[in-house]
Amino acid sequence: MRPVFVQIRCTPGKTYEVADAIYDREVVSELYSTSGEYDLMAKVYVPEDQDVGRYLAENLFDITDINRTLTTMTFKAF
Fold it and tell me: Where would I find the Transcription regulator AsnC/Lrp ligand binding domain in this sequence (predicted)?
């Protein structure tokens, strides 16, 4: 499994609904509310045999009221 961090910007006033929808899909291992440009940060473990972009698009990015995302890939830990 490959850990990926996804920052999510939601439609104003819809952050809790988006967070609930994300949890309902059981795709993220951790989900945080954040300050700044994005509203949520999710840690997602993507299976090694899956394309990261396709996996996130099919399992996360089609949720209503997600307006923008920023995905940070991870590499080998030190």
Answer: 6-76
